[in-house]
Amino acid sequence: MNYMHRWLLAIVGVFIMAAAMSGCSDDQGREALVYDPGKEPVKIGVCLPARDASAGYGNRLLDGVRMAHLLKPVINGTLITLVLRGSDEIAGSSSITDFIEQEGLCGIIYSPGSSGGADPGMNAGPDDGALTVMASLGCSPGKADLAVLKIGSTLQDQARVAALFAARSLGCRGAAIVLDEGSDSCVRLASLFSSELIRLRGKIVHISYVARDRAGLEVMVSSLVERSPDMIYVPYAEQTSADVIALIRKAGSRAFIVVTNVLSEQEFLDRGGKSLDGVYLVTDFHAAAVRSKRAGELERLYGKNRKELGTLETGAALSADAYFLAAALLENAASSREVEGAVDAFSRTESISGITGLGDSGRLSKSLHVSQVKTGILRGSRLIYRGSIDPGESDPQVDVGAE
Fold it and tell me: Which of 44, 161, 228, 343 allows an S-S link to 358, with CB 3.0 to 4.6 Å?
């Protein structure tokens, strides 16, 4: 099925599933669909990548929003409806303004996609987190009192947590970096990690630049292993990182390996196979790290629809957070003075990925989560939760021992 076809089916599916829920609730945590039919629905725009290389990532984000909408379809006795657009169609402030006015939107959930192209209308760039939420406070379309909040870790957060984990939890001082120069995000992460590790009194002993042929990769890995680093930092590049890790293990290196910026955990595990055993992964979400009521409801919903949805992963967790946050703002914040209280309440009871509150410049503060790959014959590859690290911490305590 092509991606645009799936988006069209998703639009129809939102309304079919909402109709099926009318007047009932169940053990998956869905709220009874009780609302005033005389009220105009609250419209939330959903602008996600729908084409080319980012479309698969966009579909995972869309699944998270759809499932969150099933769990919370009504606010203040008013039905919520979703209006879908590809983010490539919403490029710039004028397009966003037109979209809001033409559709009568009370809020928007926006992602530029895995390519991370900057969008001036949403102030969303490649280092601004995964998603931006905009809500018209008081639920009045076109109202000037807007809240614009950003969800998901930045590249700076990821690099900081990787360095903290390496220095404080693993006790590493000398690190090597595997760098795919073909990825802008990898280049940025490598630079940020280097700076953070040096601040923590560590050092970079080697940078391995990823070659484009097998012979070149083997020479690169041989040179890396000869340096005997304590740990190897891998900013994830979909086309090359799994092969490099396999060669590092084949060469006999026992260095710790820490990976960040993986967009799909299951695809990462499938691609890397047994060579990933023992590798550490830093992500925005791990099911074992979050204890909110909504997180449990969403996990159960994914469990009952595993064939269609797969497992609940970071992308869907963040997009579900974006939906629940937009609903919370529209439901509980009539003005900018009430935004912080609405975010605090959302953080305590509804956050899926572990958001802890409102930070600076509209960014939501949150911890990142460290897990370790374990492979086995019966259970296959899985991620064992090791701990969570706040990027602002100076001395995190993370379990790095046996399961």
Answer: 343
Q: Is residue 82 a contact partner of residue 14, using CB atoms and an 8 Å limit?
A: yes
Indicate the residue type of 156. Answer: Q
Domain with residues 3-152+288-366, CATH architecture: 3-Layer(aba) Sandwich (3.40)
Residue 227 pLDDT > 50: yes
- Model's pTM, two decimal places? 0.86
Sign of the Cα pseudo-torsion (16, 19, 25, 30, in order) = positive
Percentage helix, strand, coil, to 5, in the chain? 45, 20, 35
The DSSP line for 336-368 is GGGHHHHHHHHHHHT-SS-EEEE-GGGBEEE-E
Across 9-39, b (16+ Cβ under 10 Å) vs e yields: ebeeebeeebeebeeeeeebbbeebebeeee
pLDDT of residue 378: 75
Tens of pLDDT, residues 35-60: 788 889 999 999 998 776 667 888 99
Q: Give strand ranges (E) for 171-285.
A: 174-179, 203-209, 231-235, 256-260, 280-283
CA distance 134 to 41: 17
- pLDDT above 80 for 239: yes
Instruction: Give the fold, CATH level 3, of 155-283+367-389.
Output: Rossmann fold (3.40.50)
Q: How far apart are CA 232 and CA 114, in angstroms?
A: 24
Same topology between domain 3-152+288-366 and domain 155-283+367-389? yes
Instruction: Measure Cα distances from 313 to 262, 265, 272, 316, 403 in Å.
Output: 11, 7, 17, 6, 21
Q: Where are the domains of the chain?
A: 3-152+288-366, 155-283+367-389
What is the rounded distance in angstroms from the CA atom of residue 56 to the CA atom of residue 279? 24
pLDDT, position 242:
95
Per-residue pLDDT tens for 111-162?
A: 886 554 444 444 444 455 678 998 887 666 555 577 889 999 999 999 999 9
